[in-house]
Structures are given as C-alpha cells and as structure tokens.
C-alpha cells in the first residue's frame, strides 16, 4: 500500500507543516477506510495564522469594495471551473452522493460568494444634518473573524461564512470539522489562485480544541459557528470572555405540515427530500411530518412505496446513487440507537430501521431510509435531532392543533406547509416559530434568502443582504461646523 497523503494547514497562501508532527486520520464514510492524514494546527501554526490574518487584514480592508468584489468574482469563476473535482472531494469526505454534490455543494457555495461580491460595492453609510453641523456613518469591517464548520456541507459552509466576511473587508480563520477537512482547504487554494491576498483566508485543522482556541482568542472579533446546539452554547460562552460577536447556525427538529388539500405526490417529495436528502444529515430537515387525518392512509401508502422503490443506496460516486453513507461509524450507531428507542417507545417502524451493506460498498456507514408512524409528540424520536434518515410521521386534525404542536419545541430552525389554500398557507407560516420557512416547497436555500434559526436553533443569519450588517460595524462621525459652545 502506498503511504497515505498528509495534508497540512493553510496559512498565508500556502501549506505549512506543524512542529509537533501530530496528525489525525480522515475516513471515507462509504468504505470505512482511512483516506488520508491531516496535520493538527499546533501552537506554532496557530500563532502564525493569527499574525498572517493581521497582515492580511491590513491589505484587504484597504482595498476598495470594487477591487475586493472583482477578486471574489474571480474565485467564483474558479470554483465553477473546478466544480467536478471539488464535488468529488466532498463526496469522498462526507459520503454524500455525487448526484447531489456535483449540482449543489460547490454551486451554492459559489452563488453565495457571487451574491456578496455583488453587494460589496453597495455597502454605504449615511449622513444627516444637525443644524449647521452634521454627522455621517461609515460601515467598517470587524477585523479577524473565525469560521467553525460542521461536516455535512464542508465547502458550502466555508463559502457561506467567508463570502459576507470577505466582501465586507474582514479576514477569516476557518476551522473545518475534523471529519471533513478538505473542502475549506480547497476553497483557500481557490482564493489564492483568484488573487485574494495572503492571510485573508487561513485554514486551521484539528478538533474542538482548535475551535476553542479561536473562540477564546482576544484578537478574534467574531465567531460564525455551525454545529450542534450543545457545542454552540460552549462557543458562545467562550466568546463572552472577550465580548465577541457571534453567529450561531445550530440544529433543528422542524415541522413539515401537510393539509388534506395538498398535492399529495408533491408533499411526499418534500417529506422525502426533507428527510432523506444527504442521507438525512441536513439541519433544516422536516423530521416531524404532520399529516392531516383524511389523507393519512393514502399518504403513508405512497410514501412507503416511493421510499422502497426510488432510493438507490450504494457507492456515492456512482451517478445512479441517490442515498449515501453517514459520516462516521459512531454517528451511524447513534442513529441506530435512536431507531431502537423509537421502537421501544411504541412507534411503528414502517420501513428501514437497519444498517445497510450495499454490494459495491459493504463496509460503509449506511442506514436504510427509515419511516416511523403511530408516533406522538412525547417520543424521543419526535423531540430530538437525529441527523440521519429517520422520518417521524404524526397526524393532526385542526389548524390550531398543528400550530401548537409544531411550535412545541425549543428548536426553531425551519418549517414547511403544503396546502392549496393560499390564505391558510401564509396564516400557518406566520405563526411558525422558525427562521426558514417554505410554502409548497422544502429545502431550497438560494444565496439571496437569509437563513438562520429562532429559539435555540441559532442567532443571526447567513446569506441574504441582512448578513452584511453582521460583518460590519457602524462608526458615527459628528462634524462641527462652527466654534464650540463651551462654558469653560
Ligand atoms: P458539532 O459537533 O457541534 O461540531 C461543529 C464544529 O465545532 C466542528 O468543527 C467541531 O470540531 C467544532 N467544535 C467542537 N467543540 C468545540 C468547542 N468547544 N469550541 C469550538 N469549536 C468546537 O457539530 P457537527 O456534528 O459537526 O454537525 C452537526 C450539527 O450541525 C447538527 O446539529 C446540525 O443540525 C448542525 N448544522 C446546522 C446548520 C445550520 O445552518 N443551522 C448547518 C449544518 C449543520 P470537531 O468536530 O473537529 O471536533
């Protein structure tokens, strides 16, 4: 066997080796094999990344917005040119199907950079007369921002965080998940190729300790975090030590509400997309599927039929595969444990519920698409985020009832409704305690649309022009036009 490739940290426009020699293994979830090693960002690397970010900020923040925009648009062009190569990296690191990664992950990451590059030159202050005097405001960058990412959309998450940060003149030190380190490092390479100055986007590799170092560091002005609620709380508590600004993109247990008058096939497509896309590892998934009583039997029959017939599980690089492997053996076990809890608490397992060993990938971390019925709101599987392909179907009778039950959770990331009644659609969505909502749609998240959570699902937004405010601070400047009126 040839020796494993060892990747290094990306600091100041190049890969640099650490001093300790400490590395960690990255496993391909579809094969269970170690794919490569990555050097951990030790203290020397961390210090040099910080020094590099400071010098990067001195250059990048002084460019005109149009100049920054032009460079970022070049990065967009390169990302699109390298789409297939980058998508393959994402497939091998995450276990998700090529069918998805080749049309979503890089594309939506590039879209976000393009969107914010377009907005950069429109960032402006205002001025107001105060008698003969006046004041004006400047929207200034925050400085060095930290991005900390989850493993489900590694490159896309890095793009969504870097795009508004860099467009506003900030620099970013990004720490990807230890399970998926390559997406962010490839983005860093693309930025360098595009002409982004050294130090503007550094990538540090390692586990939560590297994330914690960033979160606690006094020279970091802001942390944008994507991950679990529990980790988010730790990050926010640590950020409080130096009163950093935070953006928190956390987990969900979102409701998908389907009324009797809905187009059933369309609603089933949404339920399947919202539970089985990326093998269920999506934060906005509609894992509590509320179906109105009259259509319930037909809905269930077609849902099971389509799930059993249309899901193709196997080698994620096979273009036919539409259902991949879970990120790790431990995560696979966690999801299987939830399935056991569902059964033991009395839910009926309609289909799935087991690990799978597809012929072309027998050692991967696959789980069959799983559907539970006869569920109630108190069951663990209806309350906790599973982050795997496990759908919980619940029934309801009235609007009032479903709104109350849908909102009965501490989480509030997303919500969806299917109905032909346009008034009811808006009425329901306006009552949802959730930041990302869909009517007769599920999961679409264009760069123009702000996304983020209510309640414990998050703080702040990503994408959409809203986000510019989160990466700039206002300086107000008062200008006196006459001698001061002073008693001294
Ligand atoms: P996680 O375990 O919370 O980890 C997220 C990131 O935080 C990883 O890079 C992790 O490093 C790092 N980390 C761990 N401990 C830390 C600490 N004390 N300080 C700073 N950083 C620390 O989440 P995950 O398992 O990777 O991702 C799944 C979760 O992400 C789900 O809950 C999902 O809903 C959520 N998510 C939310 C969104 C959204 O937009 N709302 C999008 C995608 C995913 P290591 O893993 O390398 O140790």
UniProtKB/TrEMBL annotation:
Keywords: Metal-binding, NAD, Oxidation, Oxidoreductase, Potassium. It comes from the Bacteria. GO terms for molecular function: betaine-aldehyde dehydrogenase (NAD+) activity. Residues 16-477 form the Aldehyde dehydrogenase domain. InterPro entries: Ald_DH/histidinol_DH, Ald_DH_C, Ald_DH_CS_CYS, Ald_DH_CS_GLU, Ald_DH_N, Aldehyde_DH_dom, BADH. The active site is at residue 249. Pfam families: Aldedh (PF00171). Its EC number is 1.2.1.8. Belongs to the aldehyde dehydrogenase family. NCBIfam families: BADH, PRK13252.1. This is Betaine-aldehyde dehydrogenase. It comes from Vibrio algarum. The gene is betB.
